Amino acid sequence: MVTKRLAFKQRQRAQLQAQLILAAANPAIQADGRLSRLVRRARLQLHQTDDVDVVAYQIAVDLGYYLFCHQYDLSRAGYDLLAVVQSIHAHRLQSGSLVGLPVSES
Q: 23, 24, 30, 50: which has the fewest Cβ within 10 Å?
């Protein structure tokens, strides 16, 4: 079980690292100073830490803020990066309970 989990995390890390390399090489991202810094900072953070979930979450937060501030105008490479980050972050297991909403009888 532990080896499967470790292999899964390594695949996620490799996928995120490859997507960050592609994003850094994209001319649209290179032309945008803010996105370029965001990708550089994410690559450095991924290199410094082993926790791919934390890096993916931070990229998602940064890209979300960027999208909000720029009226959701983002290059295709940025959206591709966001999709990879979301797929990594979606696999995090969190405990909780479901809440049912009351159904009104008309």
A: 50
Would you state the structure tokens that stand for residue 35, as one six-digit string? 């996105």
Cα–Cα distance for residue pair 56/20, rounded to 1 Å:
11
- Give the model's pLDDT for residue 92: 63
Residue 96 has pLDDT above 70, yes or no: no
* pLDDT tens digits for range 67-86: 998 888 888 999 999 999 99
Residues 6+ apart with CB under 8 A from 39: 20, 23, 24, 29, 81
Give the CA diameter of the chain: 58
HSE-CB of 41 using CA atoms within 13 angstroms: 12
Half-sphere exposure of 72 (CA within 13 A, CB side): 0
The pTM of the whole model exceeds 0.90: no
Give the H or E element holding residue 63. helix 52-69
